[in-house]
Amino acid sequence: MNNWLLKSNRSLLYPNQQMTQICLGRIGTKWQEKKANDLENQMSLMDMMASESPEYTEEGPEELLDPGEDIGDSEGQTDKPFKLVANKTTKAKVSISTQALNVVKAVYADTVETNWEELFDGFDRLYAITFSSGIEFVNKVINKFSYAEVVFGCEKIIANDIAAIMSVQINSVQRLAKSKSAGSLANRLDDGSLQLYVSRDTKSHEKIFILESADHKRVRVITGSANMSASAFCGIQRENIVCFDDEAAFSHYKVLFETFKETCSDNVSYKAVVNTMNQEDYLKENIKEVPVFQSIEKQKLVFLEHAQPEDEVEYEIVADVKKMQELVKPIMPKMPVQANRIVVAAEPMRVFTKRYTEVRRVAAEAVKQLPKLHIDYDAGTMTFNDENIDLNPNLSEVAKNIKSIQKFFSGMDYFYGDVEQAKKDYFKYMTWYLATPFMAYLRYFASRNNYDTKLFPMYGVIYGDSNGGKTTFIKFLVKLMSGETVKMNTTEDFTATRIDGLKRVCEGLPLNIDDLAKTQFQNHSERVIKNDEWGISDRLVNYPAVSITSNKITSLTKDLSKRAIICRIGAKIDNERGAKNSKRVNESMSELTTAFYGEYVRRMLVCIDEMTTEMRENANGKEYFPDIFHASSSIIADIFEACGIDLPDYVRILYYNDYMGDESIGRAAIEKIELAWQADPSKFRVDKKQNRLIYSYPPDGPWYELKYIADELPNSLEAEISGGNQLIMNYEQAQELFGIKFRRWLGIFNL
Predict the structure, then answer these.
(1) Residue whose C-alpha is closest to residue 291's, from 184, 183, 196, 205
(2) Distance in angstroms (rounded) separating the CA atoms of residues 442 and 439
(3) Average pLDDT for the chain
(4) How far apart are CA 230 and CA 137, in angstroms?
(5) Contact 520, 500 (CB under 8 A)
(6) Statement: residue 17 has pLDDT above 70
(7) Average of pLDDT values for 430-437?
(8) Cα gap 450→93, rounded to integer Å
């Protein structure tokens, strides 16, 4: 132990043989002892059902040892009690309970510095319960042991009914099977050196790691707040870790482990893992292979703790689990309650199986039409509607896609207006659009590490006059990303309820609201766009962004422009030229594959990993600015160059301020003021004494236009409307922004 090194600021409590730990548990002493005796005496499940069971009325904050509490040191007082603090992040409502708690008393001895590897070294067998975990870290830990048993719990609080439990277990096995370590874990399951279990106790938050040498001469128990994850054991977050090296502690916690394993968990079979590795929805399509279903088939019945009415509120349900539960629960036969336990028998579950098979068949048909561009960040893969997209494409195929991109952009040469600016604006929107599948993932990391989620905007608005090619451009981007043609969403889909529903069933590829009506936007934009925290509490990391095209929207309020990227297209094409250009556009789209986007995503995954690492490491330290726009535009340019293709003028490196800076947001309004000055300087008046520039809007102009201009102008101008048709601005700031002095001398205007 003298060589243990400091790896983090976490406290490791290392008691001697006589020490015990203060540990608040959920299970009363008498009930726990009875469970131990049940195991020893091989009491039948029916006997256990008939026995008296305590009522649980508390699902409150998890009790933790305060890491900041002064608990003395080896030279001072060592019998000072720990201070118990509540984790305030829980959303569950707490009801007062008089239920007895198991309290294992402990006396503080010493704090030592170590790392996770040395903490787990020197033992042969591992028995663990963890309610949250990182699969890659789990694999690293169990590779230290010749034999291991691990019980996985649920990271969220869920309703304790059979539908929710089945859903959680399916989700847990899918997560394990999708991990990079799935093959290694499956091999251990196959040779019998590893046993995995998933909990059916939805209120269990135990974190217990029991270590034992082959000859039982060395034993260790590790407990506290740390789950089996790199975040917990590698110094990424603060944890309380307590260690026992005595036989008494080993015996006590081993009984807890065996009791929990036998009565509150279900075995994960090698077959379930291997088949899920090959087919993600294997368990959904073969419901009898779900661990709890297997237990019911073998034991004929199992028992669940029956939730009391006061407990059935504010459950947090993981999104994937919730979707599965919503499918399962309505067709699940009602289970009887005996001795305050839900009795789940084999026969009703067979009835459920028949119903489930039919419901899933119908649901599968409906889902086929929904776009799902899914990025697996652990595996480094991407699929579109369950079909793999090659992230290592041949560069010659990538080059063909770039030629199609160039052909599409060259079609804009047929347009009227500022064509070159239109190309730059479309590229700017493309840079955001291609990056949108990563936005939800980055927003989740941002929220966890004290960064503003608005750094990663989930809404884009591309607007301008009709015949500007907006809809065609969006269809082109969809084909570029997915290789498929996807149906556009209509203006009726732009409501808070419908957008919420679509976000939950679609993934990655933006929801494209085409030709959004002005009234629909005005009525719903506030509720839809300003919901900054959507998906974060549910840990959704693949939900889609929303892209809006419109001929009717002329501006966004400042509250909305902080949350959505805006692209105004000032060029358009007439019908005759549009007909001539259609062949070029159709050819460029038909030639597209996913090669370019596959190359883009592979490179972006590296950048995203760097971004999340920097955000995590600098959450409370040095400044770091995660610029997704710079990353996206740089990668696009790099791909052009990697294929030996010269960069067109419209392909340029972009930064956050190019999208969300005041001048960028207000560009259209700035241009209108500049044009108004050029057209009629007499409409402008300077009040130098008050430092005001007054613009008198033409009385015959549309009244709402002036409001749009005021909304979009940068905050530095302090723009406000007075008298209905006057726009008042800060004169000094206006001179600097517009590059105009706004002064007239003897009829000659000073520009």
Answers:
(1) 196
(2) 5
(3) 77
(4) 6
(5) no
(6) no
(7) 96
(8) 26
